Amino acid sequence: MIERTVSPSPERDLPERDLPDGLLAVRAAEGDEDSFAALVQRHGSSLLALARCMLGNPQDAEEAVQDAFVSAWRRLPEYRHRAEFRTWMYRITVNRCLTMRRRRPPPLSLDVVVEPAAGDARSQPALSAEQDAATAALSRALGDLDAGQRLCWILREVQGLSYKEIAHVTRTNEPTVRGRLFRARRSLQEAMGPWR
Known about the structure:
Blueprint: H1 10-13, H2 21-29, H3 33-55, H4 58-75, H5 85-103, H6 125-144, H7 147-158, H8 163-170, H9 174-191
Helix pairs in contact: 2-3, 3-4, 3-5, 3-7, 4-5, 5-8, 6-9, 7-9, 8-9
């Protein structure tokens, strides 16, 4: 009689940080908190950067990402792996940011200006004024884009998502994403022409 030896899965011996997202998500859906913590560690900073771009406020961004991860933890049993875990988290985070923007009170007046600290790079008036003007121009140009174009631009240019991933996050298709990006880039190029 021939005995079979079952070789252990090589993935069982790997630490969480080396496992693919899909396997970590399956383990997390089964209640493995360490696997979910590995996913949070792996994707938290990019989601936070996305939320900062969308909300403009670090505290709101942190709250949005935290809420997105709490929502993901609760919804992991529903995750069907049709998209990568990262893309699924981007969608949850984008939705949370959009909800927060709708509920946000109007911004404070621009008359409220914080004085830079001594020795701060911003204490150099000429450089500071130029940087502030360029940043304000970009912010205005981004604000002038419609919401779909702005979101596609942020996901592509800031976050580096593929067209396919952006289509999934925005619940559109790749030609729509390409069109929105084309129009966004053209508008930003025209608006930022004086700053080249």
